[in-house]
Structures are given as C-alpha cells and as structure tokens.
Amino acid sequence: MKKNRFVTSICVLSFAISLISFTGVSARTVKYQTSTVKKSSTYASLDYTSLTVKGKSKVAKAVNRDMKKRNKALRKYYKGMKKTYGTGEYGTGSFCSSDKKVSSRKGKYFSIQEYNMEYSAGGAHPFSNFVGYNYNIKTGKRVYLTDVLNLDLDTTKKKIQTKLTKYFKKHNIESSIYDETTFKDYKEDTFQFYIKGKKVHVVFSPYDVAPYAVGFVEITFKLK
Fold first, then answer.
1. Cβ-count burial of 159 within 10 angstroms (0-12 exposed, 13-18 middle, 19+ buried)?
2. What are phi and psi of 162, to 5 degrees?
3. Following DSSP, what letter does each residue of 108-163 receive, concatenated?
C-alpha cells in the first residue's frame, strides 16, 4: 500500500512539474523599460517614447530591432523638419510626437500601442495615426490580425465591415468615407491593432474610415 502511494505521489509530482513547464511558456512575462526622448530647435520639435525589451529572448531581439528602426526613422524625420522649417519662412514650424505603451506582455502575445501626432505650419490641424506592434512571445515573430483571429484575409475584411457598420449606427455617424471598397487593397499587415486581455482592438486612424472630426475608430474581437 505504501509503495503504491509513493508511486502515485511521484506521478502526481511529475505531472505538476510538466504542467508548470507547459504553462511557464504561455504565462511568461516580458520585462521592458521605456524612456522619453526630446529634441527641439527654434522651429521644430520631436518627442518620442523609446522602448527596450530586456534580455536575449527571441521576442526581445525582434522588438528591439523594430524599435531601433522606428527611433532612427523618427530622428531622420526630425532632421527633415529642421531643414524645412529652420529658416522660419513657414511661421510656427512643426512638431512630431510618438507615444508608445505596452498593452500585453504576458501569455502568448507582446503588444505595443503607438500613437503618433505631427503638425506642420499652414496645416488645418495636426495629423494623427495609430500603429500596433504585436509579437508572439515564444517565437519572437511579428503577428498580424489574420493570425490572432485565425481567419483568412477575406473573412477578416467581411467581419470588420460588419462591425464598422454597427459602430457607425451606434455612434450616429451618418457621414463616413467608409464603403465596400475601402479594404480592397488592404493586406494582412495593413490592419492596425493591439491586444489587451482577451480582446483584440482594431484601430482606424482619422480619415481611414471616417472624417477627421470622428477621431480614432476602434472595434473589438475576442482573442482566439
């Protein structure tokens, strides 16, 4: 009897260890840090969030590579602003800001939201847009909306169209620039989204599907 109990205990312990090992991957929490970078001259300014994932994991390498490229692009844009507006010929000049925040850092996905705003002298209003960076934590590969919804591109488009129609009706948006041809040329990587909890938030920037006055349009799906 004691021998059977000992064997049973070993089996239970082995199962528990294997369960911890299995869930350890899906429950892994990604550690990261952010800092604010500011650059300014008389007629141009840049303000952006620099994000770095700690460690040498696959997701860390992928995220840090993409964030490094993004930071480089922002600094290059700032140099262009200084060159264009440095003489003061255009008046107040221009500014650019890029704010990042992490909405998911454990489970299967690491998700970053990036909200950008820029303004150039003479413009009627600032221009804003959203970009989502989403990665599989285990493989480090960047994932797209069709991946997380587990749907083909055509089905994804149809479901989004249905959700948008309901969104416009709910918010009494009568005038929109969205129609059945809006997503004709959209590819898997065109749709911008972020993951938070058990939901996938698809975000459309001003002018994507509605007039500027409507602002950002956001619809949600259950995470598969």
1. middle
2. -65, -45
3. TEEEEEEEEEEEETT-SS-EEEEEEEEEETTT--B--HHHHHT--HHHHHHHHHHH
Torsion angles phi and psi, residue 181, rounded to 5: -100, -5
Q: Which amino acid is at 114?
A: E
Phi, psi (deg, nearest 5) at residue 172: 55, 45
Lookup: tokens for 187: 């590819």
pTM of the entire predicted model: 0.84
HSE (side-chain half, CA atoms, 13 Å) at 191: 27
Residue type, 181: T
Residue 42: phi, psi to the nearest 5? -60, -40
Residues 185, 192: contact at Cβ < 8 Å?
Answer: no
Q: Are strands 44-53 and 127-136 parallel, antiparallel or unpaired?
A: unpaired
The per-type count for the chain, helices as H runs and strands as E runs, is: 4, 8
What's residue 67's pLDDT?
Answer: 98
**CB atoms closer than 10 angstroms to residue 26:** 11
- At 165-185, the pLDDT tens digits run 999 999 998 878 888 889 999
- For 175, other C-beta atoms within 10 Å of its C-beta total 9
Token pair for residue 102?
Answer: 């992490």
Q: How far apart are CA 209 and CA 45, in angstroms?
A: 29
d(CA 96, CA 79): 11
